[in-house]
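If your schedule permits, I should be very grateful for your opinion on a structural question. Thank you for your consideration; the sequence and its tokens are set out here:

===
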Amino acid sequence: MSVAFAGNSTTGTSRETGPLRVMIVDDSVVIRGLISRWIGAEHDMEVAASLRTGLEAVNQLDRINPDVAVLDIEMPELDGLSALPQLLAKKRDLVIIMASTLTRRNAEISFKALSLGAADYIPKPESTREASAADIFHHDLIQKIRHLGARLRRKSAVASPPLAPASPAPVARSPVARPAAPAPAPAPSSGSVSTRPFSTQAPKVLLIGSSTGGPQALMSLVTELGAVIDRFPVLITQHMPPTFTTILAEHLARSSRRPAAEAVDGEPVKPGRIYLAPGGKHMRVTRSGADPVIALDDGPAVNFCKPAVDPLFTSAIDVWHGNILSVILTGMGSDGMRGGKDIVAAGGSVIAQDEASSVVWGMPGAAANAGICAAILPLNQIGAKVNRLFAGDRS
């Protein structure tokens, strides 16, 4: 039996204040109960509905009017991928997070869902009895709901500014957009952050780090980097679990029309191909004699992530010194900022994606506000800038 809690809402619109309303859609009563308890423990979100099928979600969406939906892929009556476009047709600004177990089929479906308008995906553990897997699922899901929901409200506030209050006293705003730890408060706008000059050293390698929103951003970016990939190694760390990175590498190969694959421990790093950190392993670079090689690391998570961007960025300095160009794309948290600082200190350069084009301006925002970026650019301008820098432009 499904349970729905109808709050005061305006159908088809998103609220700018109050807790984020989350609709859970999953045919597993265990998963629905687990997620409901986690959301109920957070001050800035609430369970708007707990439903068993995609059909229930579509039929009840107008009444429930959630801000965020956690949508399972495999369900009776109407599966998640089929429900997704119907939900977005009814409420185009609904934040939908696809949830699935780690199978190749579900990974493919999750990528398809992203192309149809899902905001993000999250892998569900095979068994919630495994404490570590459940803890990671808990942490990642709450952070995705919080950050993606907060971004939705900021966009809604810009699109529909509130009417001036009748009283001259300022209107108190809900603290939802500034959640308590561990989520950081929203960073200043990318337009207000200063930049530093690009390095005078010619880049010999391109390093890219990304997280939430990264798959779409990466597939767009690599379509413009053919000339760079042909002449220089390109190494990418995307926060993503096993199986999903396998599928992402295949998509990157199709988008770039260049070889792209999960990196293999000990393989040489050469121009002409894209190396992607495999899910569940950190990707570093080291030297074997005079040649750079991949070194995969099964150590603990860094910045709550595995793979993480910082290990790649920092390890590359011993190989290429200051001849590094790094790009930090959309993503939650601050991964890449510390490694980016090390790259700049060694003489290299950092480019960050701007806030407006990022799904979440966490990672690029952290780098920007640390003062390490030579440029903060919209996604559609990063490829051209990278091409110019590798062609000799230093401005």
Q: What stands out?
A: The domain at 205-391 is CATH 3.40.50.180 (Rossmann fold). Residues 202 and 392 are 7 Å apart (CA to CA). The chain has two domains: 20-156, 205-391. The longest strand covers residues 45-51.
